[in-house]
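User: Protein folding is very new to me. Would you mind checking the protein record under this note? It all follows right here:
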Amino acid sequence: MRRLSTQDQNFKQIFAELLAFETVNDPQLVQTVDQIIADVRQHGDQHVLKLTQQFDRHPAHQFSELELSQEQLKSAFEGLTIETRDALELAAKRIRSFHQAQKQEGWTYVDDLGNTLGQKVTPLDRVGIYVPGGLASYPSSVLMNALPAHVAGVPEIIMVVPAPNGELNPLVLAAAYLAGVSRVFTIGGAQAVAALAYGTETIPAVDKITGPGNRFVAAAKRAVFGQVGIDMIAGPSEILVYAEGENNAEWLAMDVLSQAEHDTVAQSIFITPDENLLNAVEIAIEKHLNELPKADIARTSIENRGALVLVKNRAEAVDLINQVAPEHLELCLDDAELMSQEIRHAGAIFMGRYTPEAIGDYCAGPNHVLPTSGTARFSSPLGVYDFQKRSSLIMCSKEGVKTLAKAADILAVEENLDAHARSARYRYQ
């Protein structure tokens, strides 16, 4: 794992290169995805089935075999061990409770002219959630996408999840049952995104698509944006761990590796002003790496995109953190809450030595679908607000309209929009 110091002559350049990562701009990828979307739009179910057979080696002979029944979801839930079911229910309860606090209600007020103004909040009619399948099979992603939609009041939630060789993780199905998903289709990739965006004979078109996937999914979400809403273009997972003072190097090393095991292009960065701690974490990472089942993935990840960074002080660390705008940020120090106030850009901030990122992935309550690749500079975690939209409310009284209509008349004339001006003029003359 590379070691860097802010005192190195070319540190800024090296650090900027470390952060540079482009997810979906590959021209060949874009071309492939555009063709898949066009074919799904033209041929519907038939083409989705063909691609699912081709890419996922799914044994289905007809499209109806790709949809799971509510009975299958219920059976998967009931088949869980008591221990697993309790853990899943605890996670669901906490996620639901957190997102309840996010729910927005409409509001109105009467202005000094006697006109009523406000905002109406309405849930989306139908949403699609993409859940990774196969090797990266995450029941937690089902809960994190479906429960906020439920809390928002979305009446219909369509889930797509790839099933390589027709195999599905029962826990994913159990989570779908627990989260109240309406329909589940065992499809994935760009073809699943296209089916959700435009609809097929069987799959209804949705208003918004959320949830992470591979680069084909990310590119497809980008391509259909405008036809439907999307949550974000998700890049590889990231963690940045900052530590100072008394810390357990073993804990910190495992926190760093927790994201590295996701993907060979995931990013793990450790920052500290303490060189002894840096050395200890480096040794612990190497030790733990040899013990991990996904050691090959994690090693490639930290070698390619990982870094141990020595800073002069906390202020330097804050600057670097805000530059990275990490998906997950751990602050392992005594006054973590105080330091968090200086952080402007991060998807989720885990404060204190007893708050590992892994808790946030599963059961803390806040959403684990977070902005990546520096997009925390301008975007937020997935939430209830992603499944609601807002309409402005305006109601003028007979007397209250006159002042506004006169101003609108004057401004419309200035903009050479005569029908606008006359329309307003009728209300006050």
Observations:
- The longest strand covers residues 116-123.
- The chain has 17 helices and 15 strands.
- The mean pLDDT is 95.
